[in-house]
Design goal:
351 residues, alpha/beta, Rossmann fold, Alpha-Beta Plaits, 2 domains, six-stranded mixed sheet, five-stranded antiparallel sheet, 26% strand, disordered C terminus, binds adenosine-5'-triphosphate, nucleotide-binding, ATP hydrolysis activity
């Protein structure tokens, strides 16, 4: 269903939770639509779990409201629990009982008769791709298989929404791809709405239709990844990474840096560990950059413009929020900006 016509299936307004002096969630306004995969992205302690607990009716908000399918998560928590399945980071099963028996037991706990539960268990093991291991003890399952069994378990009660905590962490790349595909299908084919909570940019980027970026209890950005990227660019984020050469000489000189910084709009220049140059600007100055390099007889080996991938978005928004948040920011002692991402992205020098 197109979002334009659908009503949000998850809606929060001014949702807040304090634990003593700690504001774990601050005035969260969120709308998630049927069939969407929404990623709650944030570092440890950002408030993702607290948000999830409030949606599941497991903890009461200090103020504000959360509703699922029109039902208030606090006042009508029983009805909400019937519609929402929760897949925790570590799914608990009876290890000495087969995967199939675990599911049957779960179905019976949810009010199904044994035969009905057994039939559904078989269908779901097939659906999630572990029918071949149905008669093996759950304790012998790999993490990827346990996650699949966990999804089958959640599906036993025919939920409309599944909330998942770090569903692919600790799973190898091939297993992650397969699990991602399964989760995608649950949204696309079965129309389930899926909320994924994670601090892993790559997991969220690979799977989500939209993301909400959480920092210190606040959702500081929300939207499709490409929308967030476009928003950042419209606010002035243009990133150029390039490699240059000139007669084999050391190019990373003061004169070189000064000439790049002379281009209007350049805010930062750095050299990455792989020797490439990283320039951030608040406007598109690629043509001037290329001209300047060519005028000075540099040979450009490669150049690409970025600024729209989730890592950059996350880092940017996170830095912005930290600047606005003042003290307790994650900035390092020397005042340089904290950087997310992998080693290859680390800058050797930042100016
Ligand atoms: N029961 C509690 N009592 C006191 N403080 C809590 C409690 N639960 C969470 N907090 C605090 O609330 C804030 C948000 O925590 P929360 O667990 O929601 O974050 P998170 O984004 O889920 O982090 P993680 O990825 O580490 O699970 C943190 O500062 C945390 O210490």
């Amino acid at each position: 269903m197109s979002r334009a016509y659908a009503k949000p299936i998850i809606r929060t307004s001014g949702l807040s939770k304090n634990y003593g002096d700690v504001q774990a969630v601050k005035k969260l306004n969120l709308e998630i639509y049927p069939g969407e995969i929404f990623g709650l992205l944030g570092p440890n302690g950002a408030g993702k779990t607290t948000t999830t607990l409030m949606l599941l009716g497991l903890t009461d908000p200090t103020s504000g409201h959360a509703a699922i399918d029109g039902k208030d998560c606090t006042r009508n928590s029983l009805a909400v629990k019937n519609e929402v399945g929760y897949l925790p980071d570590k799914v608990g099963f009876y290890p000495s009982v087969t995967g199939r028996e675990n599911l049957i037991f779960s179905g019976m706990m949810n009010g199904l008769a044994r035969e009905e539960a057994a039939q559904r268990a078989d269908e779901l093991m097939e659906r999630v791709g572990i029918a071949y291991a149905g008669d093996r003890k759950a304790g012998t399952y790999s993490r990827g298989m346990r996650q699949r069994l966990g999804i089958a378990d959640v599906l036993m009660k025919k939920p409309k929404i599944i909330i998942m905590d770090e569903p692919t962490s600790g799973i190898d790349p091939q297993g992650t791809r397969e699990l991602t595909k399964l989760i995608r299908e649950l949204a696309d084919k079965d129309g389930l709405t899926i909320l994924i909570s994670s601090h892993d940019l790559y997991q969220i980027q690979a799977i989500s239709d939209r993301v909400g970026i959480f920092v210190k209890g606040k959702m500081i950005a929300c939207g499709r990844i490409d929308e967030l990227g476009a928003q950042l660019r419209s606010e002035g984020l243009y990133i150029f990474d390039f490699k240059v050469e000139r007669n084999g000489e050391n190019i990373w000189t003061d004169a070189f840096q000064k000439s790049i910084r002379s281009i209007p709009g350049v805010k930062l220049i750095g050299k990455k560990v792989d020797g490439s140059i990283h320039v951030e600007a608040n406007r598109d100055m690629q043509k001037e950059l290329v001209r300047l390099l060519a005028d000075q007889d540099y040979v450009i080996r490669e150049m690409h413009q970025s600024g729209g991938d989730l890592e950059e978005i996350y880092r940017r928004y996170f830095e912005q929020a930290e600047k606005e948040g003042g003290e307790n920011s994650g900035s390092s002692k020397d005042g340089k900006q904290r950087r997310f991402g992998r080693n290859k992205e680390q800058l050797e020098k930042i100016h």
